[in-house]
Every structure is written in structure tokens, then in C-alpha cells.
Amino acid sequence: MKTVPFAYVCVVLCLLLAACGKSKEEAVDLPQIIERGELTVLTVSGSTSYFNYRGEPMGFQYELAQQFARSLGVKLNVKIVKDENALVDSLLAGKGDLIAYNLAVTNRRKDKLIYCGEENITHQVIVQRRGKNVLTDVTQLVDRDVYVNPGVYRVRLANLNKELGGGIRLHVMPADSVSAEGLITQVAEGVIDYTVATNEVARINKTYYPNLDIRLKISFDQRSSWAVRKTSPRLAEAADKWHKENINSAEFRASAQRYFELNKHVSHGAILSVADGKISVYDDLFRKYAKQIGWDWRLLASLAYTESNFDPNVTSWAGAKGLMQLMPATSRAMGVPAGKENDPEESIRAGVKLIAALQQIFKKVDDPAEQVKFVLAAYNAGAGHVTDAIALARKYGRDPYVWEHNVAHYILLKSNEEFYQDPVCKNGYFRGTETYNFVREVLERTEVYKEKIRS
């Protein structure tokens, strides 16, 4: 009898064990998930899916995944991957149970995946300002200037231009000069007239800029939804059932409204009373606590006004509360007693404690005036996004300790995939336009206060 080499036997055994391990992993379905008490979802960092805001995870798809996990009675574990292809590869490799993202439905993917949950329809739209001259038909784009970044928007617009026989003046803006959301801001502010976005991204941006019109569609509809492996049919059924039963629930609707409907800006009224020499009824508190961080009290007052319009009872779209608009987790970390989030003094005291912590994080910024800008940006965005912008500035040869035209440049680009997916970035997507404007507004208002109010 011929003897089989021992090394050959070892190789065969290893392959069999690997195959068994793979089958076991792929066989994970709803019963196994419930037994282990945890649902692992895969998603992509972005404005409609998942992002970090002031140190807390947020995003429409993230919130839906939370709600779904709670319905199963399990904990949620979120893993962020680079893009759609990585979502599918990671799912098939057993690194997650469910894709919680609007994954494009394709015939090729149907061979390996079960699409589940709510089916969404996405398409590209022209972003323009409302008014009597608003475009209502794609043929009206002829002889118009449309600004886009390189990528899918440029490709679609170039194809549309061919379909129309030419005439669209297409301006391709380098990704390192302005992001897609930066272009939308330019449309809202009247700098340019037209750009392109998906209908979802356009809807979110309309909550920041109500003067936008996003009705003109320029591409075919693309179906998308959540997905699981073929070997997880019971999990797919549970997702289908949950979406069907909860799409009209108060919790589901609240999440949809938070991202796609609620105005993201605090309404500001004229509160400054020059005749009385006061900024607000909280001036004495601002004077008292500003000393702890070495700030002019009028700078602290300007920060509070920009955050809350001096309304201690306001709650932002993201859930920030009180005069200083602290997020729930931050409020707890800064020692605000439960139920005291709207107490003016507690809010100011906690806000100042947060500022002191941020001053330590950015202590390498030697210039006091520059450090204030970094601290204000981190107060608004969360320290992680500012440290990402610092890392990008350093990588691309700009001064990491100077705000304007340096670190601020990369805060503005953190909504651009090319930058927030850079290996030096640890905190993913962020809408930097709001933070950039926040820093500028707080400092400009501080100068007005200094001119009109005694120290």
C-alpha cells in the first residue's frame, strides 16, 4: 500500500478545518445572533449613514440599526469600512452580520446577498436656489455653469451633456479645493448657481439652507437597501418585518425628521442692549466662569449666544441641551446632574470645564489667539475632527498650529471622501462648513461685544 506523506495529510487537514470554520461563520443567522446577544452591522462613514458629532455617534442608518437591534433584544456593534465594495467583501468574509447602509441593488450582488429592510430610491439632482428662474427641465442646463467635483457627479453630467448635444458648461473643481457639500454651500450663498448631489445628500443640506431647490432630477433611479448573506434568511426576514412594522412609528419618524427635515440652525434674535450695557441676563455668570479659563467674558458670552441664542431651554436637532448646548454624554462627563441640563449656571460651569479640557488638548498651539480658534472648532465639532484636520494639514505641508487657510482648510474638506478616508484621519466624515462658520461668527460677535460693552 502506498504511504501518503505526512506533510500532505497536514495540508489537507488544514484546508478542511479552514473550510469548516468558514461554513460555521457563514451559517450565522438570527438564532446565533440572539444567542450571543450582539448584532454586528457594517456601514460607511457619511452624512446619511454614520458620523461622529461632538464625540457622539450619529447618522440615520446608525439610528435605524440601533432601533432594529433593540427590537431583537441584542446590543449593537458597529464596524466602519471604506466603501460599498468593502461592505460586501467584509460581510461575505464574516466580519459583520448586516449591512446597515443604502447598498445599491445589482444583479451581480443578488447572487451572494439577500437585500432586506426598506427599499430606497436614490438619484442625482441639480442643486440650485429657489426663485422664479429655477430650472425645471434638464434641457435648461444648456448654456449654464455647473460646478462639480471629479467622480460620479462629473461623469453623470458629462453623459447628460452628450445626450443634450452639448452646451452645459461643466466646471470640475479639484477635490482638494472644495468638497461637494462646500459647493452646495456656495450655491446657497449665491457664489455659484448650480451643482449636483444625490437626493439624500441634497435633502440633508436643505435643512441647513432652506433657500435651496433640489427637485430637478438628472439621473435614473437606483434601488438600494440593507443586505445580509444568503445564509442569513431569518435575519433578512426579521429586518423586513421590523421595517414594515416600524416605518411609521414615532421613533422611526423622529430619526427621519432629525436628519432630513429639522432646521439645523438656531434662530438668532437681537438680544444685545447697548443702552443697558448688557449682553444677556447671564453676564455675571459669564464673568464669573470665564476667569477659570483665562477668557474675556464677552468671548464666552458670544459662544453661548451662537450656540443657543441665550435660551437655556433649547434642544438642538442632535440632542444638545442648555445654554452651552452640551451633548448628553458630554454633559454627564462634565458633571451636570441629571435633570439640570437646562440650568444656566450648571450649563456654563460645564461648558467652561469642557473648554479647559480642550485647552489641554490643543496646548501645543502656542499663540493664545490661535488656540482660541482651535478650541472653538473642537467645541463645535468634537476634538477628534479637529485633530484629523491638524493631521491632514501636517501631511500636506500646511501649518498644523495655524487655523485660517491651514487647519481650517482641511476642516472644510472633511466631508470629502478623499480626505476623511485618508489614513491619517481617525474620525471619518464631518460637515466642516458649519464649524468653520461657527468659529468666524463667535469671534466676529466677540469684537462687536468688546466695542459696545464694558469689560
TrEMBL record:
Membrane topology: Peripheral membrane protein
SUPFAM superfamilies, sorted: Lysozyme-like, Periplasmic binding protein-like II
Keywords for the protein's UniProt record, in alphabetical order: Cell outer membrane, Membrane, Signal
Location of this chain's protein in the cell: Cell outer membrane
Annotated Gene3D superfamilies: 1.10.530.10, Periplasmic binding protein-like II (3.40.190.10)
Domain Solute-binding protein family 3/N-terminal positions: 38-263
SMART domains: PBPb (SM00062)
Membership in a protein family: Belongs to the transglycosylase Slt family.
The protein, known as: Transglycosylase SLT domain-containing protein
Species per Swiss-Prot/TrEMBL record: Bacteroides caecicola
